[in-house]
Amino acid sequence: MKKFGKLIAPLALLLTSPACAQNAPAPVVRDADPALWVVKDADTTIYLFGTIHVLQPGMKWFDGGVKKAFDSSDQVVLEILTPDAETMQAIVKEKGFAHDGKALTERLPADKRAAYGKALASLGLPATAFDPLEPWFAATNLELIPLQKLGYDLSNGPEQIITKASNAAGKKLTALETAQQQLGFFDGLSMPAQIAFLSSTVDEMPTLEHSVTEMVDDWAKGDPDALGKLLNDDLTSSPEIEKVLLVDRNKNWAEWIDQRMKQPGVVFMAVGAGHLAGKNSVLVQLKAHHLTARRVKY
């Protein structure tokens, strides 16, 4: 059971301290043409853009058809809008930390503790470093720290760039979920599902660089089928995680699109690319509303 971490929400990514981002390789300028879709009728247009929540510097994607769609919009919609620091700290304390006094290492099955300790040691951390955390939050940190060391910049994700561009252009900026809701999806997972999430992250750490490179390559060349297979196929081994983190949210977002189509205007909607790929994608869920998303060629 792998790749759960690739569905980590954009807000969860922002929770990891950037202190470990050091000795990063020099950025390489690279052009990308990620996939873009559109749903439209006589007076409403909604562009659907799939993001990779964290990228290395040098990736040129906010141009061409994506930028044209963004520029034409009067409303921009993201998964979440990051709250102020004080509010964020309160949510993290509530959702990301354990409140029953039980250390994370005590929650892990005995046969998983050695691999978990080795994973922490590979990052220069003691085995008890994440003991106060809930398993899902430990998994987030465990994945993001090595990515930062590989040069992936949390301030360089598409959501951050789109947010800055929206504010600069004075566009209406809204969100599909609140910070409380999004972290609540992770914290609301059963403890066995959270442990599976963490164990999966530990198992894939040795191949993390390769799998993330493959994921970014598929995104950059606009290959949603390959990206969906990489991101979502293994979720079927945990029906709970698949339902909570993927299927239910995709259904909710399809419903949001259906309701928004009743109002005139142009919307640029950016969500994690995994939500726009595969058999349970937002694009598929739109069919229940008699809506069709068309791939934009650019």
Automatic annotation (TrEMBL):
Keyword Phosphoprotein listed: no
First and last residue of the signal peptide: 1-21
Keywords carried by this UniProt record: Signal
Pfam family, one: TraB_PrgY_gumN
InterPro entries, alphabetized: TraB/PrgY/GumN_fam, YbaP-like
Ranges in a coiled coil: none
Claim: Signal is one of the keywords in the record: yes
Official protein name in the record: TraB/GumN family protein
